[in-house]
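Thread: zinc ion complex, take 2
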Amino acid sequence: MLYIFRLAFTLACLSVSLGSQAIDTVRVSDKVYALTGDLGQRSPQNLGHNMTSGFIVTDDGIVVIDTGGSLANAEAIHAAIRKVTDRKIIYAINTGGQDHRWFGNDYFRGLGAKIIATESAAKDMRARGAEQVERIKPLLGGKFSGTELVYPDTTFAQRMTLPVNGITIELIYTGGGHTPGDLLVWLPAQSTVFAGDTVFAERMLGVLPGSSGRWIKSLEYLRDTLKPRIVVPGHGKVTDMKQSLRDSYDYLVFLRDAVKKRFADGAFDPVEASQNLDQSRFSYLKNYEDLGLRSRNALAVAEELFNVTSK
Ligand SMILES: [Zn+2]
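Output below.
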């Protein structure tokens, strides 16, 4: 509790207007900034920045964490960075293969940044990029125009230390979370992690097919190995490990346990094992009221467990 108060005092906030919505620039610590956006769906107002990203100031230039959901979003991210510093952008990290992690790559590469992601994320981008464009275009309307898909310049399998001076930045792949290629950006000296889509805070996460097992493992790595003092989640405000576990880990574990029990009680198939599952323990999360999201999450977990046990 005491720690939360301290965090609230340290975080200074300045907003960059995005039409009627806003990206909040939050100074997490010396050299480290989060860019916090909307918790809801992608819209022309938020330009696809319905997530949290950020940037790090090194002696050599700026490292951007996630490039945004559209060209317009990338420009807005750059505008937010320029309010803090006019240093050159040297790297852009894509923390995963979901649209808002990498749809602004074209813009940042144009500024001279090298784009880095995991091998697994790059594979995911190539597999799902076109399909993601089709889904996002209607949500952003004219604000999506000019967005071109650009894949990472450099990929790595497990771990990479960024060759920059002034701050240690480690990129760690733990097997993925929400998407298969999600990585963690770890700043050991600051005990801070940019968790990307491995951590959803404040809002209900979305379980993609086959993701809950790997996702839980990645959260356990965060909890047991990195033990960060500060978590910049992929969705939600800058927080700590306690809230990250409550809002992401506990929900995933809850879904798996509830579905396992249904199977143990004789549920015949994933639909039966997931239907009308009481998820009200998590009704405090934003987007809980979205019944479609809750049902899809339960069904995805049931299908994953059914596939594992029926092999
Ligand atoms: Zn996301």
